[in-house]
Amino acid sequence: MVTQTLIMLVTGVVAGALGSILGLGGGIIVTPVLTIFMSLDIKYAVGASIIAVIATSSGSAVAFLKDDVLNLRVAMFLEIFTTLGALLGAILSGFFHATVLYFLFGALLIFQAWNMWQKLRGSKTETVLTQSDALAEKLELNGEYYDKQEGKTIQYGLERVPGGAAVMFGAGIASGLLGIGSGAFKVMAMDGVMKMPLKASSATSNLMMGVTAAASATVYFFNGMINPVIAVPMALGILVGSTIGSHVMQYLPARLIRKIFIPVVLIMALQLIFKGMAVF
Amino acid sequence: MTKEMQQTQDEKNLAHMEVVIGKIMRIGVALALVAMLVGFVLLCLNPQAANQPFPTRLSLIWQGLISWQPLAWMMFGLLLLIFTPVLRVVVSIFAFAKIHDHLYVAITTLVLFILCIAIVYGYHAR
Fold first, then answer.
1. ipTM of the complex
2. Cβ pair B92:A76 closer than 8 A
3. Where are the domains of chain B?
4. Which InterPro entries match (chain B) (predicted)?
5. B126–A91: do the CB atoms touch at under 8 Å?
6. DSSP sequence for B14-34
7. Residues of A in contact with B125 (CB under 8 A)
């Protein structure tokens, strides 16, 4: 039991640090470690994964107290769509097999990795949208943050809000159905579709994941899918790891974050596709 | 005061409110952390308890808490952790109300409403 607890603690610290740097839930690291290395029932792995998501989100939120990187209005507006999606996903999960979705989302993530690779090869610096379009203006979604690595305040506008909202709805469905934070899709909606700077997208995604995951986590909790002997040491590790990660993040250049992001997304994609293939 | 100055003032107030939200979140996370640590320490003192079934009903968790059951304390800590993001939404409603941003009071209340439906569904779908 001592070894298992120690493994969970260490996994938690690593998952929390990586998760908060990349704006992911940390479930990508937690789920394979639990299912592959510790041969744990997938049921408990999913339950532990959703706790990992919330712990990463809340842990980073606590660290972000002093730094206004996240955009509260963007988070709350888009949360309408993720929570609606998560509710629908949680209801559907009772009737509907998730195998097809593993494939679908795995493929979508490969596209995401390719998309980011293109961006990395393209422009040297991050391009920032200075003017919001009409709808984003009306919703007051534009924002600013102080970039510690570049040493200046970056003001940004947003565009294509309906497109971002649609991707967020899909991200919510994935979260409710599969017990993941779907942070990659959230970052994709903000950074890819709405042209929000990556650091702001990543920080805002961290906040949103916790809110979305809270809904499905209560279902898992009362279902007995969250085993405290596994989830608690991991959550403790994650709270430590995500606090470290979110402090380190602000000093990393955006291009480096992207370089870390691409292989993580690819691993996640393969993991989802393998999960889908396990049925055959 | 011109409209623009009022807007800048409101943005400053929102930034201030975000610090308040952060502080309340800290309290929530700290409480969850304490409950999980209490359970964890109790479990280390009595490792045998790890093999017992863990409580998932609120009444059973409460009974376990008052009799210092390790797993009940751990489950209570996890439940507190699950509710920290919900707490954030609730406090954000007040934050937007304070800066008279009616649009975002409505938007955030809608998020809380959807969240409540999801939680009620979760509790009854057992």
1. 0.84
2. yes
3. 3-124
4. DUF1634
5. no
6. HHHHHHHHHHHHHHHHHHHHH
7. 90, 94, 219
A77 at B interface, C-beta within 8 A: yes
Task: Provide the 8-state DSSP code for B85.
Answer: H
Tens of pLDDT along chain A (280 residues)?
A: 677 788 888 888 888 887 777 656 666 667 767 766 676 766 677 788 888 888 888 877 776 655 567 888 899 999 999 999 988 877 776 666 656 666 766 776 787 677 677 767 765 456 677 777 888 888 888 887 877 777 788 888 888 888 889 999 988 888 877 777 777 778 888 888 888 888 888 888 878 888 988 888 887 888 788 889 889 988 999 888 887 887 777 777 767 777 777 887 788 778 777 777 765 5
Per the structure, how many domains does chain A have? 1
Supply φ then ψ for residue B82, to 5 degrees: -60, -35
Picking from B57, B82, B120 by the largest number of A CB atoms within 10 A of its own CB, the best residue to mutate is: B82
Look up the pTM and report it: 0.82
Which structural domain range is residue A68 located in? 2-276
- The answer to whether B103 faces chain A, any CB pair under 8 Å, is yes
B67, B42 contact by CB (below 8 A): no
Does any CB of chain A come closer than 8 Å to the CB of residue B49?
no
User: What is the Cα gyration radius of chain B?
Assistant: 20
Beta strands (DSSP E) in B23-93 are: none
